[in-house]
Design a protein that fits this description.
The protein is globular and about 70 Å long. The chain has an eleven-stranded mixed sheet, with helices on both faces. Helix content is 36%, strand content 17%. Helix 2 crosses helix 5 (248-266). The termini are far apart. With 505 residues, the protein is α+β, with helices and mostly antiparallel strands. A hairpin with a 5-residue loop joins strand 6 and strand 7 (83-87). The chain has 14 helices and 21 strands. The model is unreliable at 64-72 (pLDDT under 50). The protein folds into two domains: 7-417, Creatine Kinase, Chain A, domain 2 (2-Layer Sandwich), CATH 3.30.590; 422-499, no CATH class.
Length: 505
């Protein structure tokens, strides 16, 4: 049977400094420091378990990778269990691990709110009239792209190659409902003006079907084998092919449809009749056609539209749910995912404009088309690219997505609470509560451990190798019974080990 689909999102934000001379790395550091300086302590990230060169195909390239020059830059853990850090000159928020798709959407929204609060805090320390502006988008319009990555827990028993080949058609075509939309093209060798508007911000940047890289020669399937939990039992699918969404429903569908299909693969219920002949070419073909009529070539020699392929996958998922249930994603979430998946496909078939409240690219195109009509603008007018970027502006008074009548599935109160409070359904609860209760005593943390200083050598590391341990149900009493981290460590007994972690400051 498929395992619970623990999942999360890592979002890199674009950043611009106005009214002050600042490079992106400095600006990103200031943004994050402005936010975390409000708290009792800044908890560093523990890199001891990081293995970015571990490849799912059976080899390790850690020794040949260049050192990460940003290792000692701003990199902190928040009380909601999230990670907030500088990554390749961008501020990045990684949500805590979530048990349910709806939970992940909530914490993705909380990440947006954290960035907005960071911008306000940064403004207080900048010269009058200066500010740092963040954008939840995926490209700078100059050929550079930054990611919105998804992560899903899978059983190690599933052969990686089998999973990769079966999920690829979904990754190529799901952009019809979760693409963020973009004016022009950034595909190397193609004039930007040759594509007036496309579905995805990321599609132009993919060059390989499968590989380890995330910044150069980007692959549709990333092979990083870094589960952040028991590697004998689990693997983490690190997905780099998606856009950053402003629409909550689009985020919900992006995560939910993928999670269900991965569960189907684990249960050997996804057939191989939709393999693509040329996935890398197909991802651009689909993106460059807002009419949704472009056909792509299957390995069998047949042709199919992205809409038809998604409808086929949705039908398979509905049959799977009838036979196996949807406990891997949660029955309630699962039913909603299937219903909304079916609705968005039908809506796009009938008229994409009917989905402007759900699908980012449709909402953005409506705004752009209205602007072009009112001002008689040509498709190449640079003002349209400005409008494109403004859709993703994190300043509420500037953000066009907030004026697009997008459907919300979260409540404001829940979002604000999620900026400081962890989810209760995964180990993120334990991590977040440790930081809330003993901020001065937590030396560092990462996804699979928390390191305490209990006043004597060595430091104490509490391992968290099981994502579904450390939940509120399992650990709340431990926190009630412990007034100090030393008492917590004593209660945990032989589960705790010594740590050689050395703080950088």
């Amino acid at each position: 049977m498929s395992i619970p689909k623990i999942l999360g999102i890592e979002t890199e934000y674009g950043i611009i400094a106005t009214g002050v001379d600042s490079n992106p790395i400095t600006a990103s550091s200031l943004l994050i420091n402005s936010y975390v300086s409000r708290f009792d302590a800044s908890i560093g990230w523990d890199f001891d378990a990081e293995m970015p060169g571990s490849d799912a195909r059976g080899f390790n390239l850690d020794d040949v990778f260049p050192p990460d020059i940003e290792m000692n830059m701003v990199n902190t853990v928040l009380t909601n269990g999230a990670r907030y850090y500088v990554d390749h000159a961008h501020p990045e928020v990684s949500t805590p691990e979530c048990r349910f798709v709806s939970e992940a959407v909530l914490f993705d929204r909380a990440g947006e709110e954290i960035v907005r609060q960071s911008m306000l805090e940064a403004k207080k320390v900048l010269p009058l009239g200066a500010e740092l502006v963040a954008y939840k988008n995926n490209s700078d319009g100059k050929g550079n792209s930054y990611g919105c990555h998804e992560n899903y827990l899978l059983s190690r028993a599933v052969p990686f190659g089998e999973m990769a080949s079966l999920i690829t058609p979904h990754f190529v075509t799901r952009q019809i409902f979760c693409g963020a939309g973009k004016v022009g093209s950034e595909f190397e060798g193609m004039p930007s003006s040759s594509v007036a508007f496309q579905l995805s911000q990321r599609a132009d940047f993919f060059e390989e079907e499968i590989g380890l890289e995330t910044t150069l020669k980007r692959p549709i399937i990333n092979t990083r084998d870094e589960p952040h939990c028991d590697p004998a039992k689990y693997r983490r699918l690190h997905v780099i092919v998606g856009d950053a969404n402003m629409s909550e429903v689009a985020t919900f569908l992006k995560l939910g449809t993928t999670a269900i299909l991965l569960a189907m693969i684990e249960d050997k219920q996804l057939t191989n009749d939709l393999f693509l002949a040329t996935p890398v070419a197909a991802i651009r073909q689909v993106s460059h056609d807002p009419t949704l009529r472009q056909t792509i070539l299957l390995d069998s020699g047949k042709t199919i539209t992205a809409l038809e392929l998604q409808e086929n996958l949705c039908e398979k998922a509905e049959k799977y749910a009838e036979r196996f249930g949807l406990e891997s994603v949660g029955e309630e979430d699962g039913k909603t995912i299937l219903r909304r998946w079916r609705e968005v496909i039908q809506g796009l078939k009938e008229d994409p404009q009917t989905q402007s409240h759900i699908v980012d690219w449709v909402a953005k195109k409506r705004i752009l088309d209205g602007m072009a009509d009112r001002h008689k603008l040509r498709p190449t007018d640079p003002r349209l690219k400005t409008i494109d970027l403004q859709y993703h502006d994190m300043r509420p008074e500037k953000c066009l997505a907030l004026r697009a009548n997008l459907e919300s599935i979260t409540e404001v109160e829940d979002v604000l609470r999620a900026t400081t409070t962890p989810p209760e359904t995964t180990r993120a609860y334990f991590r977040g509560m440790c930081l809330q209760k003993w901020p001065q005593d937590v030396v560092a943390a990462n996804w699979d451990s928390v390191v305490f200083d209990i006043g004597k050598d060595p430091l104490r590391r509490v391992p968290m190798m099981e994502p579904l341990r450390g939940t509120k149900a399992l650990t709340e009493k431990l926190f009630q019974q412990s007034n100090t981290p030393a008492e917590l460590v004593a209660l945990l007994g032989d589960q705790v080990s010594g740590s050689s972690f050395k703080p950088s400051n």
